[in-house]
Specification:
Order of helices and strands: H
Distance between the termini: 119 Å
Largest sheet: none
Shape: rod-shaped
Number of strands: 0
Number of helices: 1
Structural class: mainly alpha
Helix content: over 70%
Radius of gyration: 36 Å
């Protein structure tokens, strides 16, 4: 009979231990997921400045030629108005 009384307590204790183990595992899983997401976001953020530098470099290479051709066209227009060309 003593054994019958101890069994429900033991099973409750086992359930509590299992529940606690599941909570610990869930917390560990959540931390792992947060860590992995943080790594992904960090990698993406590290790429952004590289892309901006590359884009600004391309723009700086394109802008002088556009500015030169605009000045050339302006100079030709001024010369044409004065009777040149």
């Amino acid at each position: 009979m003593d054994r019958a009384k101890n069994t429900p307590r033991d099973s409750n204790q086992v359930r509590k231990e299992q529940l606690e183990a599941m909570r610990v595992e869930a917390a560990r899983f959540k931390l792992s997921a947060i860590y992995n997401e943080s790594k992904k976001i960090l990698r993406l953020l590290e790429r952004i400045p590289e892309q901006r530098e590359t884009e600004s470099h391309h723009l700086s290479c394109e802008l002088p030629s556009a500015t030169i051709s605009q000045h050339t066209m302006t100079a030709k227009f001024k010369m044409k108005g004065k009777g040149h060309l």
